[in-house]
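stuck on this chain:
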Amino acid sequence: MPKQTKTITFIRHGQSLANAGGITMDHHAIPLTELGVNQAKHLADSLAFEPSAFFVSELIRTHQTATPFCDKYSIQPTVHPLLNELSCIDPQLIQGMDGKQRRPIADAYWQEADPHKRLGENADTFAEFAQRVDYFLLELDTLPDRSVLFGHGIWFGMLVWKVLGFSTNTSQDMKAFRRFQLGFPMPNCAVYCLESSNLGFWNVRAKAL
């Protein structure tokens, strides 16, 4: 019997206010910029395939990116908390800061590279984030073929890191992941395909528009 291929499409959200260097907001509430809204509309017009389901994280920017697709195909998205990105700094600790002011704090976090460090009550540790992606990978085979995931760049970088078989347990692992993630091509509204013909084994490829 021939093996049945499953394809899952990942789409990073459009440009957000944080991407544009805006003032700190609650992670969940950061909206798309006008450019980000237009990016999502253009992408929905450009991609020609029939999706079976849409999944979004709990963060509003993925919902806004999914909206043109939902309208086009009359499919409501399912919120999937395991798609949430790494929130490594509690917004209360950086309240009122813009992107330039936040950068040294984020750089210091990655330079220290403590997988269990928590920068504030409402922040993730790197270890928790990596485990969240592990849990999602366990569910990936159960998603319907032709599902579309609207998510976050660092999240997908971690997914690919895991698919490649790299670990995230030590400080050196964390630093290695950061180097990989910074070099991974992931502009706003980037599109990648995950393809599998065997349970638990996935190939990743960029989708040209």
Notes: Residues 6-206 form a domain with the Rossmann fold fold (CATH 3.40.50.1240). The longest strand covers residues 191-198.
